[in-house]
Structures are given as structure tokens and as C-alpha cells.
Amino acid sequence: MGWSFCYSHHTKKQLTDSLVESYENNGAQYIINFCRDCNIPALDDSLPNQKIVVNTIKQKLVGNCFWRIIRQTLFANGIELYHHDMIMVDLIQYDRKRKCYGHKSMSEYCGPCYYNCPESFLKETTLFPGVIGDSRQWAENWREKVVKYHKINNIEVKIGDIVELIDGLTFGRKIVKMIIITYVKSKIVGVEPGSLARCRIKREHIKSINDIAIA
Q1: Cβ distance 139 to 127 under 8 Å?
Q2: Cβ contacts of 45 within 8 Å, gap of 6 or more
């Protein structure tokens, strides 16, 4: 799916509210198509009066990623047969020329290259049992990267800490350890012991802190 823009969406909130409402009204067909693509029997043709109802049960906007848990419930003759939850993300972008916000939707089965999904969303959902092949592999790999993303971003460092860097990392030459001299939000700067050379370090570069390995 490509990008979609609407001139009436002048704020992120207007866009996210519209997305939730749109799924409440039109999400069932998306789910049906998705299940067919992944060979999931979403509808049982032998049952009369089948209906899929789609609801957003949890949501969170993180930067330009609108994360949601979408619940799909299958009814037959007004009786709920089953429901399943799936993680969705809408990437948000502002069009300066049109002066409005747009979005691009995808599910976890697309293996989105964005990992700031709330970790609690993973704990509250499971993958469709019937999904196999690439779609399942993409989703499993994506979930692993979300866990790793939060693990890295929860690393606590402070000025004066001695950090060991991961293997294979070079800053013009191989550097094994650095002393943290600046730490402001995501900006971490270190200096090599016995040297005046300063380098900016990313959290994912850190192997251990004060000889304590990052688990």
C-alpha cells in the first residue's frame, strides 16, 4: 500500500482519529483480504450470516509511527466464534506542499522497518497460528527486533562509565574501550583511555558497561 493524503488532516490527531474510525467502518474487508493472502480461513463458507467486526483496542503514537492493536472478531448469526489481535502501524508523513498529513499502513506480517512499537503490544498479542512462510518469518523477525530496540534504549550510562564496544567497530582505527564524557538524551560521546580522540557512540555499539556485560 502506498501513501494516502487527505487535505482535511492538518494535525496528527485528526489523522489518527480518522484512521481509527476508518478501521471501525471499513477494516473488515482489509482483514478478509489479508487472511486470504496468508491462507488463513477467516470466514467459514458453511456458516450463514458471517460477519467480521474490527476494533482498535489499544493505540499509541510514537513519533511518526501510529501503533495499534487491531482486534478482528468473527460472528455467525450474531454469535462470536473467535477473535484475534494483530499489530498494525501507520507511518505518518507531512506534505508541506499540500499542508496536510498522510499515512501508509502495514501489519506486523509485512515486517516493517520500524521498531519503536510499545513492547507491551507484543506481550498482549500472538501471531495467527495459520500464518506460514515469509509472512510469519517477517513477523517473527520484526518482533525480535522490537525487543532488541527496547533493550538497547533502556541501557543506562553516565559520565565516567567505561564502556567496551562491540567487536568489529572502528573509528578510523580499532577502539575497544571508551570513557563516557558526554551523555545527553541520545547523544553519547566517549574518549579512548590515554587518548584525546572523541567519538560519538550509539547505544547499539555498547557491549559492556564497567565490565558488566549487557544481557
Answers
A1: yes
A2: none
- What's the rounded Cα separation, in Å, for the pair 104 and 65? 10
Whole-angstrom CA distances from 32 to 16, 70, 77, 162, 170 are: 22, 13, 18, 53, 49
Say how far apart CA 54 and CA 143 lie, in whole Å: 23
Nearest to 101, CA basis, from 2, 3, 10: 10
Question: pLDDT tens-digit profile of 2-32?
Answer: 787 877 788 888 888 888 887 776 666 666 6
Residue 49 burial (10 A CB sphere; 0-12, 13-18, 19+): exposed
The total number of residues shown for the chain amounts to 215
Residue 46 has pLDDT above 70, yes or no: no
- Identify whether the C-beta of residue 54 lies closer than 8 Å to the C-beta of residue 23: yes
- CA gyration radius, the chain: 22
Q: Which residues contact 155 (CB under 8 A, 6 or more apart)?
A: 203, 206, 209, 214
CA distance 22 to 45: 26
Q: What is the pTM of this model?
A: 0.75
